[in-house]
Amino acid sequence: MAPASQPPVIPVSQQGAAVGVTPQQATFWVLAGKAQDAFNLALAQKRPWAEVADRTQMAKPESFSEAVTRARKNWFYFRINYSLIMTGVVALSLVLHPGSLFFLAALLAGWTYLYLVRTEPLVAFGRTFSEREVLTGMSLFTVIMIFMTNVGSILITALMIGAAVCFAHGAYRVPDDLFLDEQETTGGFLSFLSSGTVPQVMSHV
To answer: Where, by residue number, does the polypeptide cross the bilayer (predicted)?
Structure first.
């Protein structure tokens, strides 16, 4: 009996060229995946909102130093909740200023085109720009445009309001009933930046 024929083997490109993925797009999706994992991990550490709003644990601090001590302890315990509160304040500020929201959406569209849609080298004024030059130029353009318009002041004001709200809660919330392991004081939304994978990925850009 003749042996069964084996199915043909389809070669797979290790660089992603077979599926049309550029190194910049691959880098973006790797970082996006790591950010998503860090975000999910951070949300898993979120404290119940009923515990945040427990009025029985509210008391006026006797001194400013006690207020600072309380705020520090509450920050480590409620840091995910406080981060969500500050994010909500920033989002509300942008919704109340649709012009700034549109401007940020336009910047996001520019970044999306450069790193998700574009597949060819960027050519302008008869010159081909390297990926490092594109990244540096777009970063500088973003920073300059944000702080040359009222978007920067809106974001800074929203962050200050959010920080003030979180500090006020932390100063009045008595932390005596809160227990936090030492290893829990690390991590958060940006914990993925501490991974050694990111520099290795970025080196390919």
So the answer is: 76-95, 101-117, 138-171
CB 52 within 8 A of CB 152: no
- Can you tell me the mean pLDDT for 159-165? 96
Q: Is residue 129, in this structure, part of any structural domain at all?
A: yes
pLDDT digits (tens, 9 = 90+) for 129-157: 888 888 899 999 999 988 888 888 999 99
The closest of 114, 113, 94 to 104, measured between CA atoms, is 94
Q: What are the tens digits of pLDDT across the range 80-114?
A: 999 999 999 999 999 999 988 999 999 999 988 88
Let me know if residue 89 belongs to a domain: yes
Instruction: Give a yes or no: residue 12 inside a domain.
Output: no
pLDDT of amino acid 35: 75
pLDDT, greater one: 56 or 204: 56
Domain that holds residue 103: 21-179
